Amino acid sequence: MNNKQIDALIRKCEPVMLTVDTGLYFRIAKGNPSWVVKYTLGGKRSQIALPEAYPHCSIAQAKKIAAEIRSQVNTGIDPKSKRQQDKQEVIRNVDDLFQDWYDNDISKRLKHPSIPHRIYRKELKPYIGKLSIKDVNPRNIRSIIQAIMDSQRRSTANQALMYAKQLFRHAVKLNLITYNPAQAFTQSDAGGVCEGRVRALNIDELETVFRVFREQQNIFTRENYLACCLLLSLGVRKGELISAKWQDFDIKKRLWNMPAENKTGVAITIPLPPACMPWLEELYIRACGADYLFPSRRASKRRSYISDDTLNHALAKLFGLKVDGNKQPYDNLLGNAGIEHFTIHDLRRTCRSLLAVMDIQGHVAERCLNHKLKGVEGIYNRHDYLPERKEALEKLANSLAPIFNYQEVDFKNA
């Protein structure tokens, strides 16, 4: 059979199945031409269509592929099974491995898969992302841990090691490697046993901190300043605040109806003290019609609100820490002002401590921070304590407002 004969058959457009070579057939079905290879494996007859049809696959190419299929059958390989295996996603390097792990495991299993995603993207990917999986060795893992430890981030070093172990365990599971290059390392090789943080700021420290914030607006922007005011006054988590949408705020009733997409997985209504309303009004103007209270400050395909690291990095700069790879760090402005190091998350602990100082009952203070009540009380007590939380947060915000508003800003003309 030659090209002219095949072209004539295609023009007729009639159903046909004609032999071209040993096991190779030219078929027209429902007006569509195709190459088909018939074979017998284990006493069972079967057939498989070639991926491309005539004329994209010539007669000569079809014969060559058919010969390869016959060769596979002679060695006991089912060409259909092999094609299905070849269709599986190719995992060439560590980036591909992580994507497969993320798509098929952690995105389905973990409540917050963004955490390992962030650790991989920031800590592991720059060192090993483009390496072949088989080329990653324990020395690569050690270099990653040491780089994190050099930046004095013990907890992050522990996380990076933990996720590296899980990532390469996934590779072993897929039979891509036979040993895990991170497995021999222990917590003592990374950040060690990290004790729970206990840092909380007192009123005198807060006065100094916010004075430095105001004096260094080129480093710590007004939006960052207002975010810290709200974190201390409302007791919410940083992630809950920076991802908040204006549509969830009832300004007239002074309520923030936080949806269930938070750490507890349960929706909650946050009462907004009157002292916080001017800060929210300012943020609304600064948002320029964006959906979020803290819209992204640069074009980003990943999300439309600021990064998880925005506030952390801004605060770290005021402590003289190096957070920008190509820039020299600032002076330790907060340290020079007599402030012991603290983190953004410590503001939440500060909020809880201040509520205790004000003699707010423990169960009310815990609900102010959107903590679940523990033990039997948590099982049977479903009261949301909204009136009590409203009173507690108003008392807290009124005591903090003079510190935050020390320097009034005409934000309408800012």
Write the layout of secondary structure elements.
Blueprint: H1 3-12, E1 16-21, E2 24-29, E3 32-41, E4 44-49, H2 59-74, H3 79-87, H4 94-109, H5 114-128, H6 138-150, H7 154-173, H8 203-215, H9 222-234, H10 238-242, E5 249-250, E6 255-258, E7 268-271, H11 277-287, H12 310-318, H13 333-336, H14 345-357, H15 362-368, H16 375-380, H17 386-404
Helix pairs in contact: 4-5, 5-7, 6-7, 9-11, 9-14, 9-17, 15-17
Structure commentary:
The chain folds into three domains: 3-87, Integrase, DNA-binding domain (Double Stranded RNA Binding Domain, 2-Layer Sandwich), CATH 3.30.160.390; 94-189, Orthogonal Bundle (DNA polymerase, domain 1); 203-413, Orthogonal Bundle (hpI Integrase, Chain A), CATH 1.10.443. 48% of the residues lie in helices and 9% in strands. The radius of gyration is 31 Å and the shape is elongated. The longest helix has 20 residues, at 154-173. A hairpin with a 2-residue loop joins strand 3 (32-41) and strand 4 (44-49). The relative contact order is 0.07. Strands 1-2-3-4 form a four-stranded antiparallel sheet. A three-stranded antiparallel sheet has the order 5-6-7. It has 17 helices and seven strands. The chain is α+β, with helices and mostly antiparallel strands. Helix 6 packs antiparallel against helix 7, helix 9 (222-234) packs antiparallel against helix 11 and helix 15 (362-368) crosses helix 17 (386-404).
